[in-house]
Amino acid sequence: MGLVKLEKGQILHKAGSDIVETIEVLVKGSLKISNQFTSITLSVGSFIGIVEAPGTPYNYTIEALEETSVYSYPYDNADDIPNVVRSNPKIAPILAAQSVESAFKCCDIFEKEFEDALSEYEQIISDYNDYPALCIKVGEIAKSFPEIETIEPPEKSDNIKDWAFDFVRALKANEASLKKSLYPLSIEIATGVVMSSYTIFHKISEESKHLIQYRNTLKKTTTTFANTMKAINAKLNDLENNNGDGSVVTIVNALNTILEYSGVSPEIAAKFEEQLSEFKANNNRYDSSDEARALRRSIGSTFYDVYTPAYIKSLNDNNIPIELKMFFMFGFVDEELAGEKNTQILYNMAKAYVPDPDGKVLTIYEWLLKIYNLELEPSRNEFDQDWPTYLREQKSTGQLNQAQVELMTNDPTSRLQFEIHNLFGLGNRMTFGRISSFVPVFDAQNVLRPLDMAYLTVTKINDYYKMIRNLDYGVFCRSAVYSNPEIGITQLHYSEDITPYMILLPNVGSRAALWQEIEGKNRRTPARMVVSIFNTENTEECMIKLFAEFRWEMCKTEQGVHWNDVTDPSLTSMYCDYLQFYKKNPSLSSDMKEKLRTDLKKYNNNYKNMFIADYLAYTKFEAAGSPRLNKVAREILFTFCPFSKELREKIADNPQYTELISHYNTRIQNLAKPVSNIVAKLKKDDIPIPEAVTKQIEYLRS
């Protein structure tokens, strides 16, 4: 013990190896106290090592920054610190001031360490969210990193109170006055300041250790993902530095590859080549002239003549050429028509595509496969006929005989052709948005948004499903009945959430549409929705309108002939009654009635389109606390499309919703009571609770 002299760069104590047995007072020079992430510099009068635990290895390395001297004292426990102050009465005020300085630096360092840890976490989450899109850009299949889903952000402990930081900063801010008028007053005051500072930065040091442990664990957990991101970013830089030509295989004469693969007749192949050649040569190929219209229609017809045999051949091919994958997914047929940059992007997207593990978001290729494999029935045609109805109609008109009907019913190719002609062909034109200008081939002239922004991936669609459920939690729920007399349940109505199919059609378009709300007459089957795989409009609004259309049509299906009968209250009947008799409604002011008159004229008296507009305002603005609807429309929407529990709690204080929420809660309590009684009885009899009962409980709690 005693005076210890150090040369510049000399280590006084080394973290992890030296054992804490002493504390030091810095009497000359300066020292750097550091761990693997941060460091602070202490000057003359500072205590050294008092945040360390006696008898354990040092957590911090202490290094001389210049010629330095310290006076060393034995350190067995915290009670040794006041003894050091009392044994040095002449420098006690300096020790007090420097303790405050050290605590002040520790506060700043800790907050920086926390912000750094939080930034590391946020960067990982940001990279993880961007990863699928980056994989698409470089043409790689996204890998799974379940460990990223488990990480949590760092949290500040309650061990350090805000007042402690404020206290230390206040002492530092008044340093000059305190050095002059407080610290020299008595040895007890100086000792108290030293110990108060010690207590604060000792706690900070403990929390700093937890942060170090957190960051080390975070790094270890995310190493594999971080290395993958480095490789992805390197490839992305290569692509950008090489103007997009970096590591992508050049597509040459794609049309010839597609035509040869399809095996179509030379006449059809020559016809398609001629049509596309004429189409490419015309810079005004989307004008309204008769010649341009006729050419677009003829391309539309020939496209499917090529698509169908190419598709059938691909079903038995385990190594489908990339040009064909681009053809099936995006309608890509020609690299010149698509443009060099777009061709590369489409190539990468096709190469990186990963199917939806839940099987609800499907490319048209995947959808047609379900039809071909008899997993699902073909969709309705333009006359609202399903596959069996269409065959019966063909038989009744003499187009088919009974033997042909029986043969075609489960014939994969016949079903495939029906689906291509209807949902694919008609849906492709519908979602494009400009029906008279439609062509099914990918054309750079239709690219109005960057493709990576317009591309509707599986993740994006599932995020829109999540978004709408967070607003209108019952949007996809269907009413069903459960009965099990053996356990005492004669009849229980419950709600079952059924996620729709979203079919991504190969065009650059602006619309989404509900093709059919159920399959056949089974009300517990998923809806079929179609949307352009590249959406050029506000996709969020596009999706909300689609879900609104589903709400309306599903209600009509469930209500049957009573869909507009106000004596049987439902979303459609109440809304139709509201619009039909708004002029006599005393709840509406004259200004509201005038606005309704204008809106009805705007939407050509189409009640469904009026509802869709109101539903958009309801979910986008009313849910955010910005009123857009009149009292009557708001009440109808909240009654039949109530907000989720989290949202209801958020707007509970809004006077426009207070009464509506109160009525809703009363109604839910009345519905929940018999279900609760069933659960109580089953538990009493030690009978497992059926899934239907559990679903209804979850629904009523949503």
Biggest sheet features:
4 strands, antiparallel
Content of β-strand? 5-15%
As residue ranges, the low-confidence spans are: none
- Rg calculated over all Cα atoms: 36 Å
Average pLDDT rating: 91
How many beta-strand segments? 14
* Helix-residue proportion: 55-70%
- What is the terminal separation in angstroms? 68 Å
Tally the helices: what do you get? 26
Strand order of the largest sheet: 1-8-3-6
Helix and strand composition category:
alpha+beta
> What is the 3D shape?
elongated
Describe the structure concisely.
The chain is of the alpha+beta class and 702 residues long. 56% of the residues lie in helices and 11% in strands. α13 packs antiparallel against α16.
Describe the structure.
The protein is an alpha+beta fold. 56% of the residues lie in helices and 11% in strands. The protein contains 26 helices and 14 strands. A four-stranded antiparallel beta sheet has the order 1-8-3-6. Strands 2-7-4-5 form a four-stranded antiparallel beta sheet, covered by helices on one side. The protein has a four-stranded mixed beta sheet with strand order 9-12-14-13. The longest helix is centred in the N-terminal third of the chain and has 55 residues, at 187-241.
Blueprint of the fold:
Elements: E1 2-6, E2 11-13, E3 22-28, E4 31-34, E5 39-42, E6 47-48, E7 61-64, E8 68-74, H1 80-86, H2 92-138, H3 146-150, H4 162-173, H5 175-181, H6 187-241, H7 254-262, H8 266-281, H9 290-314, H10 322-330, H11 335-338, H12 340-352, E9 361-363, H13 364-372, H14 387-396, H15 402-409, H16 412-432, H17 451-454, H18 458-471, E10 477-484, E11 489-497, E12 501-509, E13 512-516, E14 528-535, H19 539-559, H20 571-580, H21 590-602, H22 607-620, H23 631-640, H24 645-650, H25 655-684, H26 691-701
Parallel strand pairs: 9-12, 12-14
Antiparallel strand pairs: 1-8, 2-7, 3-6, 3-8, 4-5, 4-7, 10-11, 13-14
Helix pairs in contact: 1-6, 2-4, 2-6, 2-12, 7-9, 8-9, 10-12, 13-16, 14-15, 19-22, 20-23, 23-25, 25-26
